[in-house]
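Quick one, tokens below:
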């Protein structure tokens, strides 16, 4: 694994945007403060009392709602797994330069909010509405373009089941870094879809041309031409590294004998139906035992009984979903480093107890 040429700019991104420590895979809902973070620009200061959500564009009745008005609407609470589209970027070769995630840009929140669909129906989407754009209160420069952070969804996805406007996380208020006072939550899609500090919802007759859709979250080849948009999370599984870590390398040391390997798996393209484990770097695989699904949109726990003798091992796990989509051994390289769902590799040295 190469890590050459990490710049101060990348280190700055890495220290602002924390990953979820992998030992936090022990919790079905990631505790507050251990959920990963990805913030393109600055966290905006928002006065919740002055806050308004505007719904406009190709709608019959444009609306402006206060937070109090939103909170009077039907409330739902559900665990939803987020993963950053750039998760695994720093494991690609050559390494795309950006937030240098290894595998830790994931977490599951218990989100509280109100369903989006009825709000859009009440506003009255005009026939011919193609997309719905969501704009945050944060502003920055990216790719030379000054912009408010904004992302759109095809109208059918915006009207999808369980798309929420969320004001709560893990039973408490939404913290500033996660988008207070209001954010979009779109289960199954990569993290960039979940627009934080949401202030405007705009129905559009034409596809949105904003930076984050047209230029940002695309699969690029070496020619620099924007390819397919990044949409739903590919299946992925992570193992909670067993034993104890080396301080610097985080390589694991484990005592010989029985050990229960555990992890979690998710997919945005269908329910996870199988998880396999390899202890020899992917040369051979065996089925893990699946736990209860934590909800339609939450990762699923799994476990695997192992009883190694002393020696060096490389642990891997691999998820497959109901569509048959699964994980490969090597990243699918693309210039911005998105949607890498190659299997995680955890080297472990097993020693005499
Ligand atoms: N307004 C706004 N929304 C945003 C972002 C942002 O920078 N600004 N980052 C996105 C990205 S890339 C991800 S992965 C998720 C991360 O959400 P979290 O920090 O709450 O885990 O938020 C998304 N929503
Ligand atoms: Mo992200």
């Amino acid at each position: 694994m190469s890590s050459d040429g990490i710049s101060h700019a990348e280190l700055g991104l890495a220290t602002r945007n924390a990953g979820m420590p992998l030992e936090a895979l022990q919790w079905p809902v990631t505790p507050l403060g251990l959920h990963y973070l990805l913030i393109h620009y600055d966290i905006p200061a928002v006065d919740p009392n002055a806050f308004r959500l505007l719904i406009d564009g190709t709608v019959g009745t444009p609306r402006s709602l206060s937070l109090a008005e939103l909170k009077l609407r039907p409330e739902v609470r559900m665990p939803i797994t987020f993963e950053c589209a750039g998760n695994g970027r720093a494991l690609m070769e050559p390494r795309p330069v950006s937030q240098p995630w290894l595998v830790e840009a994931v977490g599951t929140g218990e989100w509280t909010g109100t369903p989006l669909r009825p709000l859009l129906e009440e506003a009255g989407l005009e026939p011919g509405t193609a997309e719905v754009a969501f704009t945050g209160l944060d502003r920055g420069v990216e790719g030379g373009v000054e912009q408010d952070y904004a992302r759109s969804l095809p109208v059918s996805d915006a009207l999808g089941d369980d798309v929420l406007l969320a004001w709560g996380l893990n039973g408490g208020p939404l913290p500033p870094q996660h988008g207070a006072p209001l954010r979009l939550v779109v289960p199954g899609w990569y993290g960039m879809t979940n627009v934080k500090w949401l202030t405007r919802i705009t129905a559009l007759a034409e596809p949105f041309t904003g930076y984050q859709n047209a230029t940002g979250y695309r699969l690029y080849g070496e020619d620099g031409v924007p390819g397919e948009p990044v949409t739903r999370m590919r299946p992925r599984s992570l193992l909670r590294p067993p034993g104890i870590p080396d301080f610097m390398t985080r390589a694991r040391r484990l005592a010989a004998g029985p050990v229960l390997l555990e992890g979690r798996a998710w997919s945005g393209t269908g329910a996870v139906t199988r998880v396999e484990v390899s202890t020899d770097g992917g040369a051979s695989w065996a089925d893990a035992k699946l736990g209860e699904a934590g909800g339609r949109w939450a990762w699923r726990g799994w476990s695997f009984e192992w009883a190694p003798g002393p020696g060096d091992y490389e642990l891997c796990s691999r998820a497959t979903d109901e569509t048959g989509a699964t994980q490969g051994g090597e990243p699918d390289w693309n210039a911005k480093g998105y949607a890498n769902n190659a299997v995680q590799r955890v080297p472990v040295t097993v020693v005499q107890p």
